[in-house]
Amino acid sequence: MKTSEFLKGLAVSVWTGTVHLFRHRMTSMYPETQNYPNTEMYAYDPKKGVAVSGWRGRHYLDMSKCTGCQLCFIACENIAEAIEMIPVPEAAHAQNKKSIYPGVDYGRCVFCGFCVDACPFYALYMTPVAEISEMNRNDLYYSPVELSVPPVPNPAPKVHVNFDKKRGSHDER
Ligand code: SF4
Ligand code: SF4
Q1: In sequence order, what E strands does the chain have?
Q2: What is the spatial distance between Cα 35 and Cα 155, in angstroms, rounded to a whole number?
Q3: Do 88 and 100 contact (CB within 8 A), yes or no?
Q4: Please, which residues bridge with residue 162 across strands?
Q5: Is the Cβ atom of 63 under 6 angstroms away from ligand 2?
Q6: How far is the CA of 132 from the centre of ligand 2 (A)?
Q7: Deepest of 6, 59, 114, 129, by most Cβ within 10 A of its Cβ?
Q8: Between residues 97 and 38, which one has the greater pLDDT?
Q9: Residue 42: left if φ>0, alpha if ψ -120 to 50, beta else—which one?
Q10: CATH fold of 38-153, please?
Q11: Are 82 and 34 in contact, with CB atoms under 8 Å apart?
């Protein structure tokens, strides 16, 4: 390769890179997407038969509504076998006579949401909490009590997503 061609190629690549430094990003990447404006929990309304769109991160279990019917467990049985019904005798909820509640193994869960769709008692949701990686395999198992901790609301979004037909969605900062 001639020296002039090499210098020309170098100049073009430096110029191209420099121009992009001053352009709005076309994509929002992690960790900014952590605070993407959609903070809704994925939910299912069994009466209306419709799902409410939202993040499908770790579950939220409302133990005061769970009857222990095991329908979430059955829904998961042929998908990932991620749900186990666990006795929680110290939970005093009259509607759950056997005091059994679902626990989820996130080493197996594929976040399909079918367990949420199967719950007829508005007891199971999926939250925006997606940062659940662990160093220890056993820590991926969430007991019913751990699932019953409501997610901490996201702080103000760090991204200002603008949708336009020409450029697609992009961060407007
Ligand atoms: S979201 Fe996870 S726990 Fe629920 S049915 Fe799907 S694989 Fe099973
Ligand atoms: S979470 Fe819902 S489907 Fe699962 S055991 Fe409780 S009430 Fe039944």
Answers
A1: 43-45, 50-52, 59-61, 83-87, 100-105, 124-126, 141-142, 161-164, 168-171
A2: 7
A3: yes
A4: 170
A5: no
A6: 22
A7: 59
A8: 97
A9: beta
A10: Alpha-Beta Plaits (3.30.70)
A11: no
Q: What is the pLDDT of residue 26?
A: 64
So where are the chain's domains?
38-153
Pick the residue whose CA is nearest to atom 3 on ligand 2: 119
Whole-angstrom distance, CA of residue 53 vs CA of residue 33:
17
pLDDT at 160 over 80: no
Is the model's pLDDT at 30 over the cut of 90? no
- In the structure encoding, which two tokens stand for residue 101, read together? 């509640």
- 72 — pLDDT class (breaks 50, 70, 90): very high
Q: Using CB atoms within 10 A of its CB, is residue 111 exposed (0-12), middle (13-18) or buried (19+)?
A: middle
DSSP 153: P
- What pLDDT, on a 0 to 100 scale, did the predictor assign at position 21? 83
Question: Residue 76 CA: which ligand is closest?
Answer: 1
Q: Taking a C-beta distance cutoff of 8 angstroms, is the pair 53, 39 a contact?
A: no
